[in-house]
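Lecture 7 notes: from sequence to structure.
We start with the chain below.
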Amino acid sequence: MATLVDHIGDFAESLPRTLCWGAAWDMLRNAELAARDYLKLVLSGVARESDIGVAQLLQRQAKSAVELFGDPSWRPTGQALLADAASDNLKAADPGSDFQLAWARTFADAVQRL
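Predicted structure tokens for the same chain:
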């Protein structure tokens, strides 16, 4: 898992990356992966996704990981991590792009829940 967290964004092909995203989500839902670890994985690689649909899906799943699957005592920390990452990615996104809009929505939602 540590290797995946460090290198998921380095996968040149989308299929292996997508399979890894899906497997990690399944592990989270099956209580085989902690929400904090899933969030770390998503935040380490989502900015490198070139498909807006995949990026938005990962943003929604990160939100769900924090809100639904995470330890309630960790939830504020997870929301803060998500808000910080969304802010950074919002600033880095091309102006007027779909990615900028998606990160703005994720940021607004995460900040609202802090």
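Points to note: Helices lie at 2-7, 14-29, 35-45, 52-69, 75-92, 98-112. The first helix runs from residue 2 to 7.
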